[in-house]
Amino acid sequence: MTELRRKFDVKLVVVLKAARMSSSSYHDARHRKYQADSSTLVDEIRSIRLNNPDYGYRTVTLALKNKGIQANHKAVLRIMRENNLLCQAFNRRTKKYNSYKGNVGKIAHNRLRRRFKTDRSFQKVVTDVTEVRWGEQTVNERAYFTAYIDLYNGEIIEWAVDRKPTVDFVTRPLKRLLAKRPDLPYRMTIHSDQGFQYQNHRYVNILQRAHVFQSMSRKATCLDNAVAESIFHILKVGTVHNHRYKNYKELESGITNYIDYYNHRRIKAKLAGMSPVKYREHTSQLVA
Question: Global pTM?
Fold first, then answer.
């Protein structure tokens, strides 16, 4: 600004108007002491991104805070942009698997009604089925993934991978979930879409015998099960979207490893910068 004023011999107000800059910003910039980014901070951000490919700049900022490093999220964003460290993992879009086959069984009422928050574990659980592929991504190289997710902390409590999306495929992890459910003074609600597996009498009977409320999304309304959709997308980003698995065994192993990482090490802003398991353990200690 000073050089422009000298070159063209004009008043400051003219230069500021041409640059669309306020006088306060100009004087602040003149007196501010700018410092180069610490190499240690850049190295820490690079290390976090290397170990967590699906972290955006806000989650990186949380990870830095957990290490005792205070950094503004805007500064972190700028450093990541300048060093080509921005997360690109979520850019890919794929076709969603649809298990709806019409009214082939019981359609349950939507008890959840998009009320995804709860302060009690095992009170609200959501589930769904999605498709995952390996190799050349052909129809002969596809498998199916299902999970039961606790809305209390977003933890994947139980899950399964199989080559066929049968009723047994979703009831096996359901039985494991019910077996590990603690004795609680309230009933559990399990929410799903209207997939044929969840309408089947075997699935319905298991819930009824366990005194579990069944809840279903409205037809063709994926936002009614938005949390499951979101977590499935995160899982795909961490596995099949950015890794090429040679066979079914590699795919199964990759999903197993990622779920362990997601539950125990992947931090979230809404969990106070903790992973799902860490948050559950932390809150349990507070209650005790």
Answer: 0.83
